[in-house]
Structure formats: C-alpha cells, structure tokens
C-alpha cells in the first residue's frame, strides 16, 4: 500500500516557519493554540527569512485561490495560502467546526464577523457583529461557534494574500446566501484547492 503524499510546498524559510507553527500547535487547548498561532503567524509574516512561494501572488480570474502549502503529518493541521484578486471575496461562511488562525501576508482585506441570532432549518438569521480592515502582519482567530464571517479584497487594483492555519484540512463548509433582511439560506459546499507550484 502506497502512502499518499501530504501537501508540502518548498519556499524560503519553510523549515523555520513549520517549526514555529508546530511549537504553537503543541501549546495546549484550542484557546492557547490559537493565541500562540496568532503571535507566531504575525512574527513569521514580518520575518525577513520567510518568503511564501511565488505562486501565491498569482490571482485566478474567476475565484479567489486556495493553495494548500503544507499539511502536518504529526499534528494534522493544514496551511492554506489564499490569493485575493481585486474585488474577490467570500459569502458569509463557517469553518465546519474547525478552529482557524488567519493572517494577512500582503495587501489589505476586509473581514466582517457575523453573530448567529436564530435558525430555522437551513435558514439562519445573522447580524454583522463588527468588521475590520486588516493589513500585512495582522492575524485573527476563529473558534466555533464564533466562526461566521466574510473576507473581501476591496481594492480595485491590488492583489492580497492571506495565510490560514486550520485544525485539520478544511474540505467543506457551509455558505450562506442572503435572502432578505437578516436571513440567509445555508448550502453545503465542497472546497477545492488550486495548484501550488
């Protein structure tokens, strides 16, 4: 039986980056882990020895790119670099019960958190609970059930790049399409990854 190769893309500072993430992930419960990862990711973004692979700066015209650059064989976490072309963004979505730490590597992103007010089957009532403009070196975390949010590159001409560290590979999520008022309709979505070479 042949083992399936885990995603592991080479880039400058790779070993330093992964060692720092490994240390943070081993730091305790999900609150301790995400706090340590936020600090670690901010440090790695500013570290002159660490440079993401060139492919993550290349946007894809019809969707924001999701490139998995590493999956830990020991801890199970997944690192995904996302490339946001001008105007690209997400609908309201969840993280399928996985904690996540997200950091802006380059450019500017608008992040809006949503609070779940009530649910009626596949209809969910959300209220925007705060937003922020995030620039290079900033990082935040999402711990279920506080995981509903949108991300958008509002720039007309600049690409943005973010790095997302998930507890495990995120291969699906719920997306929420706006119906009216504060009501949204949930659909389950399988998430694909784009080539990272």
Automatic annotation (TrEMBL):
Keywords associated with the record: Dioxygenase, Iron, Metal-binding, Oxidoreductase
UniProt key word Iron: yes
One Pfam family it belongs to: CDO_I
InterPro entries, A to Z: CDO_1, RmlC-like_jellyroll, RmlC_Cupin_sf
PANTHER family membership: CYSTEINE DIOXYGENASE, CYSTEINE DIOXYGENASE TYPE 1
UniProt protein name: Cysteine dioxygenase family protein
GO MF assignments: dioxygenase activity
Family according to the record: Belongs to the cysteine dioxygenase family.
Signal peptide coordinates: none
């Amino acid at each position: 039986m042949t083992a399936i190769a885990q995603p592991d893309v080479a880039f400058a500072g790779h070993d330093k980056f992964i060692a720092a993430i490994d240390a943070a992930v081993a730091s305790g419960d999900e609150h301790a882990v995400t706090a340590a990862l936020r600090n670690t990711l901010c440090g790695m973004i500013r570290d002159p020895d660490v440079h993401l692979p060139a492919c993550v700066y290349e946007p894809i015209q019809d969707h924001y790119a999701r490139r998995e650059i590493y999956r830990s064989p020991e801890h199970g976490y997944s690192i995904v670099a996302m490339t946001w072309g001008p105007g690209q963004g997400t609908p309201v979505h969840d993280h399928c019960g996985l904690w996540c730490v997200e950091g802006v590597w380059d450019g500017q992103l608008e992040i809006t958190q949503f609070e779940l007010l009530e649910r009626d089957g596949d209809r969910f009532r959300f209220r925007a609970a705060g937003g922020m403009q995030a620039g290079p070196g900033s990082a935040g975390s999402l711990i279920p059930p506080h995981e509903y949010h949108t991300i958008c590159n509002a720039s007309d001409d600049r690409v943005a790049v973010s790095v997302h560290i998930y507890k495990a590979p995120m291969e699906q999520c719920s997306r929420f399409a706006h119906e009216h008022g504060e009501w949204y309709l949930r659909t389950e979505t399988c998430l694909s990854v784009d080539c990272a070479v």
